[in-house]
Amino acid sequence: MPPRSLHVAVIGAGAAGLVAASELRREGHSPVVFERAAGVGGTWLYDPAASADLLGAGAVHSSVYASLRTNLSRECFGFSDFPFIADEGVGDGDRRRFPGHQEVLRYLQEFARRFDLYGMVRLRTEVASVRRETSASWRVTSHSTSELAGGGGPVQEVFDAVVVCNGHFVTPRVANIAGIGSWPGKQMHSHSYRVPEAFHGQVVVVVGYATSGFDISRDVAGVAREVHVAAATCVEMQRTARPNLWLHPMIERAEADGSVVFQDGNRVKADAIIHCTGYKYSYPFLDEEVVGISVDDNRVGPLYKHVFPPHLAPHISFIGLPFRFEYEDWVAEQCGKEMMEGWRKAMYLAARKNMVDRPENWRDEWEDAHLLSEAYQDLTKYF
């Protein structure tokens, strides 16, 4: 048991929040998890109703589209002591190595059940503000999202510590395109994209070619007349294996006649632009002046090792900000845990290479069987 059991507010019941709550309780603390949605899972809790503001977040948290599959294999994706294995006993389960979002949600729900986390999660409860009460306590104000339309006042509680796990894929970042104000077509951010049918027979420009741009461009190409992707890594127009899908350099400008002009001088008359341009880190419940934390181009600081504000540690922390092996190994070492397995790192890198080598079927054809056997040898102790 720790010297003193702390009453801890965990903001968000996605993957990070669930793990944080489980580990806090393991160490003898008393966590309460605030989740504004109707279930656990965070961004993996698919919402077919996209935001009414096609370029903003609106009231919709999830950014998952209907066809989304993981860009990490099951073996990489799973928690170290709770492997993400295909459950042969689930009749409608998705047994693919890179499964769809429904399977990820099932996995997180099962994690919450296995480690008895549901009792500490307050669903449909949104944190409105977090303020310092004393040098070692925090006043958390929350309200019920199910009562917003019909009343129900805010609830204030005092906690010893706060763990911020509110996710990174909510507040859209939109490309700054010269002339877009007079361009007559439809725009949306990938946050609001769900299914491709609305683009049937259209000419669509996708801005960005990371995971969501890669997936959505192919999803839309199945129904659109043409799809043109503006990719930062592209220096001239390129054809792809799909006859109606082209890669271009980034957009130079948009014009009032509906044209989109790329940096290499090529132009298309487009009906729609989909911004697959990522997200902004956002903490609307934190008062920057009081907490002393600011966000500048997704750099959150000042934070020691991307976790603790130095002047407030350890009473408030941020979970899951960077995506680097070195950082994750450092965190594991500080927590007295084993560093990330070599096979897990190699498997991730192999998948990234496979995505380039086999862009149309990289999730279903792979050449890392030696890593698979190594992974399952390592994970059998948790089965």
TrEMBL record:
Keyword Signal (UniProt): yes
GO MF terms, alphabetically ordered: flavin adenine dinucleotide binding; N,N-dimethylaniline monooxygenase activity; NADP binding
Name of the protein in its database record: Flavin-containing monooxygenase
Lineage: Eukaryota, Viridiplantae, Streptophyta, Embryophyta, Tracheophyta
Family: Belongs to the FMO family.
Pfam annotation, one family: FMO-like
Membrane-crossing segments per the record: none
Signal peptide: 1-21
